[in-house]
Sequence to fold (235 residues):
Amino acid sequence: EVQLVQSGAEVKKPGESLKISCKGSGYSFTSYWIGWVRQMPGKGLEWMGIIYPGDSDTRYSPSFQGQVTISADKSISTAYLQWSSLKASDTAMYYCARGRIPLPRVPDAFDIWGQGTMVTVSS
Amino acid sequence: DIVMTQTPLSSPVTLGQPASISCRSSQSLVHSDGNTYLSWLQQRPGQPPRLLIYKISNRFSGVPDRFSGSGAGTDFTLKISRVEAEDVGVYYCMQATQLLYTFGQGTKLEIK
Fold:
């Protein structure tokens, strides 16, 4: 079964760092882009960025460039989203999702989604 | 950035009746390769999003055939031929023609 399994919920304080993960299984992890999407409480979906695990080519939304870092470790089929200094406004559900087709071309849609990781930042 | 605008934002529907959601983009979604990268996702309450339709009208694997997509250029529509209880949730359009992917605001489908 093709799936993305994300790490568990996190509760952090402002200023702390955090790295959440997304592990792919059931397919060739290095051949498909992985994207990250934010959903703030009660709000819609926002695209944050994508990474191609095959060569770590990474693209960011300008809104998130410099605010987060996307990375991948292809040896363990895992993509990451990390913050160096969290803010209360980072409180949200974060989803990873797989690009639909196994090509180096950027995804035309996202077909498999992780279950989400809830990040709560509060003093 | 390409702005995606969905209407309506809320759609109360009777079970067994059709439903339709519109999505309009601020500029043409026709890519230089000739394809149009408009997809539709469903998010049931408490669940992650799920791909329904890609490239305007292609149903993703396992998606019931009561879901259909249509449109061209800047105007797109998702139709549900006969709404079932399991269809309750929020529906999003998403464009992938321009690398800064953008989503519509979401349309909440609820049962009357």
